[in-house]
Amino acid sequence: MKKLEGKAWKFGADIDTDAIIPARYLNTSDPAELAKHCMEDADPAFPAKVQPGDIIVADKNFGCGSSREHAPIAIKAAGVSCVVAATFARIFYRNAFNIGLLIFESPEAAAGIAEGDRVAVDVESGVITNLTRGEEYRATAVPPFMQQIIAAGGLINYVAERVKK
Amino acid sequence: MPMTITEKILADHAGKDMVKPGELINVRVDLALGNDITAPVAIREFERIGVATVWDRDRVALVPDHFVPNKDIKSAEQAKMLKEFARKHQLTNYFEVGRMGIEHCLLPEQGLVGPGDLVIGADSHTCTYGGLGAFSTGVGSTDLAAAMALGETWLKVPESIKFIYKGELKPWVSGKDLILHTIGDIGVDGALYQAMEFTGPVIEALDMDGRLTMCNMAVEAGAKNGIIAPDEITRRYVEGRAKREYVFYNSDSDAAYAAVYEYDVSQIEPQIAFPHLPSNTRPVSQSTGVSLDQVVIGSCTNGRMEDLRVAAGLLKGRKISDQVRLIVIPGTQEIYLQAMREGLIEIFINAGGAFSTPTCGPCLGGHMGILAPGEKCLATTNRNFVGRMGHPESEVYLASPAVAAASAVLGRIAHPEEVA
């Protein structure tokens, strides 16, 4: 069973996609380039300090605003293992599943986790463990159809399988 | 079982008699749309699927509009990907600079979207077409890629929220003010995953440009779509434009809503959304202390003919403040031409403003009006997030074209009646 573990970086409510990846960098869709500016307008130091496996934890409506898939691509390419938020904006939610960025909706976790906490996430069960505080939270269950997309390795692989049949 | 207009359109496109909120459905898509930022990613993903070509070359629209006319070499490379893909797959609806417009102004104008359609676009403001009585929603590039291959997509049926607008509009209050007021009331996630259905006598009397403006900003409340029941105003707009057959759907009178909001518009004055959220609204009378460096009139929200007419009406025979740059951007080439015929461009230029070719440009901080640290801009656009129009320490205030024109004259946020 896949388990993620990393340090939590905490963000507030309504983090928009312009904060995640400003449009001034959207003249490219190269993941490595986008990663260099990930979360820059929310925290300019973030791209320098984030380590592979780290976890973004945010309050409600994470990823609101534009439909740019560059936002989850930047987060994934920055090495972030998953995003935990109280709620996600609609298009960001779809995009994350489609490109294979793991996201977990959990208001309790968003409230309970502080910046710098060590956090472990059990991908299948959606159990989020705060190793620093010894607390456990549950993520909202993912609909079975979206689990199929994840299992296929993203929407394109899922569609490619369908097209072959 | 009674259904809302959104549910009826989704049910028909899913080949079902009925659908219920929360249900996951596979739907037929009438048109799939991408732009110069989102389509390059979609094209790369499309090529991994393993199909020879798109599902229907008449139903994939590519509109380079964000960074065009190309602002730099990288943007040129992205736009070139669209052109080459359009050529390779013989897409009928590719729009080159000179023939293009801002996607959400262009597609309704060209009759490429119509009432009863189901449209997905890799641009969050795709929800605009709800103004025509269509279901339309923004998706990401990968969803667009899948739709380009299959002609279908999956959706979760949203709950609907009904917004009823009653009473008499005060002078200078427009569709933009109604939607800003509504977002200010319910918040930037007030309609998360839901459909916003705009109804009531005020909406029934609102012109098509105002309806498109309102539905355009539904996404700023987190909504999946905004929608307005089609009527005579809709019929007049689509007649002579529609390239395909269209269907008028209406909500059943006993359809179920997750919530109902009712507004007495006679209490609403022109609205300003302060930095850095579209929900951070105040009446203009409480906002007049803010001095400005730039005013932008345009975008998929307010770059239509009626918007330019209202702004020009206020600027006619006047000069804008020495403190301010005014940038006016028509939504399409047709709007550009019409503005020229009506003498509006001359009014903007004589007032001291700049008039540009159609582009999303400054709205998303792309080009054609980027802000320096500390600069403040009042714009008729749709977002005022940190860094949206340039430097992270710049500020964007959202308002209607009338407020924008008056503010350009006085060099500070102003009520239109101050200059009218």
Q: Overview of this structure, please?
A:
The complex is a heterodimer of chains A (165) and B (420). The model of chain A has no long low-confidence stretch (mean pLDDT 95). Helix content of chain A is 34%, strand content 21%. Chain A has 8 helices and 7 strands. Chain A has 165 residues and is α/β, with parallel strands linked by helices. In chain A, strands 4-3-2-1-5-6-7 form a 7-stranded mixed β-sheet. In chain B, the strands form 5 sheets. In chain B, strands 4-3-2-5-6 form a 5-stranded parallel β-sheet. Chain B has helices at 5-14, 39-49, 73-88, 103-109, 141-150, 175-186, 201-204, 208-216, 232-238, 299-302, 305-315, 333-341, 344-351, 401-410; strands at 24-28, 31-35, 60-63, 93-94, 118-121, 135-138, 152-156, 160-166, 195-199, 225-227, 259-264, 271-273, 281-283, 294-297, 325-328, 354-355, 376-379, 395-398. The radius of gyration of chain B is 20 Å and the shape is globular. The relative contact order of chain B is 0.14. By secondary structure, chain B is an alpha/beta fold. The chains are: A alpha/beta (165), B alpha/beta (420). The interface between A and B is large, with 41 and 53 residues.
Number of H- or I-type helical stretches of chain A: 8
Please state the CA-atom Rg of chain B, rounded to the nearest Å: 20 Å
Indicate the radius of gyration of chain A in whole angstroms.
Answer: 15 Å
The succession of helices and strands of chain A, N to C, reads EHHHEHEHEHEEEHH
What share of the residues of chain A does DSSP label as strand, in percent?
Answer: 15-25%
Low-confidence stretches of chain A: none
- Helix/strand class of chain B: alpha/beta
Strands of chain B, count: 18
Largest sheet of chain A: 7 strands, mixed
Question: Any idea what the shape of chain B is?
Answer: globular
> Could you report the average pLDDT of chain A, rounded to the nearest whole number?
95
Q: How many DSSP-defined strands of chain A?
A: 7
Termini of chain B, distance in Å? 51 Å
Helix content of chain B: 25-40%
Structural class of chain A: alpha/beta
Mean pLDDT across residues of chain B: 98
Report the sheet-strand fraction of chain B.
15-25%
